[in-house]
Amino acid sequence: MNGDGSVTVDRSELGAFCRALLEPAGARSEHAGVVADHLVEADAMGLHSHGVIRIPQYLDDIVQGGIDPASRPRVEQRTPGRSHVDGACGFGQVAAAVMTREAVRLAGGVGIGFVTGRNMGHTGRIGADAEAMACAGCLGLAVCSGPRAGHWVAPFGGIEGRLATNPVAYAFPLADAPRWRPTSRPAWCPKALSAA
């Protein structure tokens, strides 16, 4: 324990701990790794609201049937420049990784990759998806809508939550990696994530 009451944990150990919680709940090993790496990366950046604090939420969602931990995202429609991914009610980070890979693939073919998705759990920090596109040499834009039930924010001048958070993230390629990241490729984004 540090003098301020905080605890320092090795990233690899924290990731292994997260995987050790997700896999017995039914998560595929590669998917548990994607989710764990994504959450640990958020914590390492100081974005604790999207870090490992989410593990209990995901485990509850599995128990309640909101997340199918064994499902695989499916690319349902594909045209030049556009695709649609069904997250199959699985982990949002896994579906988002498939969507990101698909967007980069499409952009490599026709110059633009527009990918929509549905039926996925909480996607975590969507900035990671925009960064992954930028690291692949693309301008990355990631947006998502909030769930029907969840966190609500007050509209301008309001005092009660009425609107979903609906985050937006963007990133563009740089000659050098961002200062906060020692590598040029987001650690959580696997090279080959399987999708049907």
Quick rundown:
Helix content is 34%, strand content 17%.
Can you offer a commentary on this structure?
The protein has helices spanning 11-22, 29-44, 55-64, 92-110, 127-135; strands spanning 74-79, 82-90, 114-120, 140-143, 152-153, 163-164, 168-171. With 196 residues, the chain is of the alpha+beta class. The strands form three sheets. Strands 1-2-3 form a three-stranded mixed sheet, with helices on one face. A two-stranded antiparallel sheet has the order 4-7. Strands 5-6 form a two-stranded antiparallel sheet. The model is unreliable at 180-188 and 190-196 (pLDDT under 50).
Rg (CA only): 17 Å
Main β sheet profile: 3 strands, mixed
Uncertain segments are 180-188, 190-196
Structural class: alpha+beta
Proportion of strand residues: 15-25%
Shape verdict:
globular
Strand order of the largest sheet: 1-2-3
Notable features of this structure?
single chain; 196 residues; alpha+beta; Hypothetical Oxidoreductase Yiak, Chain: A, domain 1; three-stranded mixed β-sheet; two-stranded antiparallel sheet; 5 helices; 7 strands; 34% helix; 17% strand
Task: Set down the secondary structure blueprint.
Blueprint: H1 11-22, H2 29-44, H3 55-64, E1 74-79, E2 82-90, H4 92-110, E3 114-120, H5 127-135, E4 140-143, E5 152-153, E6 163-164, E7 168-171
Parallel strand pairs: 2-3
Antiparallel strand pairs: 1-2, 4-7, 5-6
Helix pairs in contact: 1-2, 2-4, 4-5
